[in-house]
Each structure stands twice: as structure tokens, then as C-alpha cells.
Amino acid sequence: MQVAEDIFQVQLPLPFPLRIVNCYVLCDGDGWTIIDTGINYPAGRAGWQAALAELEIAPKLIRRIILTHAHPDHYGMAGWLAEQSGALVQL
Fold it and tell me: What confidence tens digit (pLDDT) does each residue in 24-41 have?
């Protein structure tokens, strides 16, 4: 869902009662920045694959992954996304 110009919200499933975590994808010139990543489990990875496909973002266009805080639902897939993209992870 687009929330502002060049900013998209990605709602990823969680395997506990909170049910979703909001992550964001920002276009920042020649690439994309991801803010927060969700929990690393099959449904979360599928959520990212679907969102990136819908937004037509190739993983290699992801330049940065920014984590807002150290809760697993916000940092859990940082390593997986960094492997897919080669992006730098920042906390």
C-alpha cells in the first residue's frame, strides 16, 4: 500500500496474536531502502517475495535495510534480505 510519494507499507504476517508487522519500502533515488523486516519464517519470506514482485523491485535494487529496534518482528529477516540483495543493514 502506498502511504506517500515513493513510500510503501508492507504488512507481513506474524506467527503470534499480534498477526502483522508494518514494514516500509522507500525509493531513494537509484535504489530502495527497507525499514524493518518481519520475522524470518516461510510466510514472512513469501510476503516479501510477493511485495517486491508487486512493486517490481529486483532484490539487487535494495541498497539499505534499516532496523528501527531490536525486536524479532522488526529485525528477523534482515539477514535473509541482505543475502538476497547485498544491502547494508543498519540499526
Answer: 999 998 899 999 999 999
